[in-house]
Amino acid sequence: MTAYKLETQHLGKDYPGTVALDGVSVGFAGGEVHALIGKNGAGKSTLVKILAGSVAPSRGRILCDGVAVDLRSPQDAFDRGIAMVYQELSLVPGLTVAENILLGRTPKRRGLIDWRATNAQARAVLARMGVAIDVSARTGDLGVAQQQVVEIAKAMSLDPQVLMLDEPTSALAQHETESLFALVRGLAREGVAIIYISHRLQELRHIADKVTVLRDGRHIGSVAMRESSVEEIVQMMFGEVVQRERPGDLRPGDAPVLEVRGLSRAGHFAGVDFALREGEILGIAGMLGAGRTELLKGIFGADTCDGGQIAVAGESVGAPSPPAMKALGLAFTPENRKEEALIQAHSIRANMCLASMGKIARGRYITRAMEQVVVDEQVERLQIKVADSEDAVSSLSGGNQQKVVLGNWLGNRPRVMLFDEPTRGVDVQAKQQIFAAMWDLSREGIASIFVSTELEELIEVCHRILIMREGRIEGEVRPEDLSAEELTLRCMGEVGDGG
Ligand SMILES: Nc1ncnc2c1ncn2[C@@H]1O[C@H](COP(=O)(O)OP(=O)(O)OP(=O)(O)O)[C@@H](O)[C@H]1O
Ligand SMILES: [Mg+2]
Asked: Which protein residues have their CB within 5 A of the ion that is ligand 2?
């Protein structure tokens, strides 16, 4: 029997109150793309972090080419050719793209960074990936998707034998996903073992040779992708999932709650016009860089617009700023949860009560018990996997952190919700719960704007979808009138606006 490139035997990891991994034995062969899947909190990230040397296991063994190894640090893992792309971005925002890609390994001359060599090496890695990013740009100035590409480039630059990718496509658009896939397949052909975590089950069909399912830290099974259906895999992940459809009883009212007229921000978007009605769920579809996030930030007052008008419930807003918009009943869940939406070191409870502080408090005091009611309600509603709500939010799995961001705002009962990629990194079942939450809001007359890279979601959830391209609203469609493929083409500008 040929040895696996990497193998675990009875691997276990305990955290206070949680068994994150429970006796997992699985082998990863060279030349194979091995998908690791399971619902939020199943233990996927924990498993790969152990294999990357950044988390110590509580029990069990790791074998590298058939030999037991002790991975005490990421450096130990690198030395064995194991590279990892983390789920949460781990780049240093103040450094250039090239410095991040070659972090700790930048070529030096007389003790100083040799910029010419550094940039050339970084450019070569990006070129191999088929992407064009300015290597001398400050990393913090890039959008999430580009940062994710840089994160991948960083792992690639190590010329790994084992490459682990934890949800690498969650912020990528279609064409970037395709170039990543081509790259991953190329590496597999060269004999690299790929471990690939994703909640996008459809894309696994195109990339994975083998699938291992984890549930509550346990290894449920491993199957060949070609011999199994998505339904079977979902069954292994959850037992049962109820697919819900947009309920027929959602009737947006007539009164506009948010009106945007000629809104512009130079270099980002221009002449944006639309009205959002009470209880309406309005999708904004577009390719990466179309200006969707920028538009939401402009509406929320997080970025300053240089032209146009915003009115909330018929009242024109003089100078939009986040506090002013919040006071008018707007809420915004940003796409980049780690930096913009959560205070990592604070407790789950505190993070979930940030937005609704004013509503929870009676007079001038607020008690834990009062907060706990709000927390319990959202934990139940969104099925957040929490051992103790006093734990730091950083102890939650990626998808569960995302749910805390949403719970924080849902508890606040706003008038208008702005959702930027709310389902990023969230499992299939939890997506359904988030959709159900949007529909519940709609029933209560609360309107939503929903931005998602996954166009199927917009079609499933929204009443109406605006198509944004290069900073402009290019058209408007009803979800019942077109398929996700047609919507993708419209977003790319491949078909006329007549259809
Ligand atoms: N540092 C930590 N402290 C305490 N508990 C933790 C820590 N890291 C992970 N856990 C817990 O271990 C369990 C598994 O988490 P893990 O991050 O591996 O899940 P996951 O499968 O990657 O989920 P997701 O799809 O949401 O990213 C979760 O219950 C999580 O809360
Ligand atoms: Mg994870």
From this structure: 45, 87, 397-398
Is residue 48 located within the same domain as residue 139?
yes
Average pLDDT over residues 89-106: 91
Check pocket membership of 198 for ligand 1, CB cut-off 6 A: no
CATH code of 129's domain: 3.40.50.300
Sign of CA dihedral 140, 144, 148, 150: negative
Residue 242 has what pLDDT?
A: 62
Q: Is the pLDDT of residue 225 over 50?
A: yes
- Look up residue 232 and give its amino acid: E
Global pTM reads 0.77
Q: At which residue do the structure tokens 């734990």 appear?
A: 391
Q: Which residue range is the domain that position 172 belongs to?
A: 6-238
In 3D, which of 419, 451, 37 has the Cα closest to residue 214? 37
To which residue do tokens 């491993």 refer? 222
How many Å lie between the centroid of ligand 1 and the Cα of residue 483?
A: 35
Angle between helical axes of 115-128 and 144-156 (0-180°, round to 10): 100
Let me know whether 183 and 230 are in one domain. Answer: yes
Pocket flag, ligand 1, residue 40 (CB < 6 Å): yes
